[in-house]
Design a protein that fits this description.
By secondary structure, this protein is α+β, with helices and mostly antiparallel strands. About 40% of the residues lie in helices and about 30% in strands. The chain has 3 helices and 3 strands; from the N terminus they run E-E-H-E-H-H. Strands 2-1-3 form a 3-stranded antiparallel beta sheet, with helices on both faces. Strand 1 and strand 2 form a beta hairpin. Helix 2 packs across helix 3. The mean pLDDT is about 95.
Length: about 80
């Protein structure tokens, strides 16, 4: 089981999309600055998550949310 998730920065206009098999641990890593990509944008709030069966499905959904249509959907939340 994999989770595709979207985080919104509470201090800047930034949305991060990723996938993981352990969502609570991953959110903790983002909010404590262990991830170089998201460190300057912390703290984050979880705005969307979706559980899928396989890594391949998770990657497909992640790519969708990183596309223009997917970003528009996330911004509307």
């Amino acid at each position: 089981m994999f989770t595709v998730y979207a985080l919104r920065s509470l201090t800047r206009n930034y949305i991060y999309v990723g996938m993981t098999s352990d969502l609570p641990k991953r959110l903790d890593r983002h909010n404590h600055g262990y991830e170089r990509t998201t460190k300057p944008y912390r703290p984050f709030e979880l705005i969307y998550s979706e559980v899928v069966e396989t890594r391949v499905e998770a990657r497909i959904r992640e790519k969708y949310f990183k596309s223009g249509i997917g970003r528009d959907f996330l911004r509307s939340l």
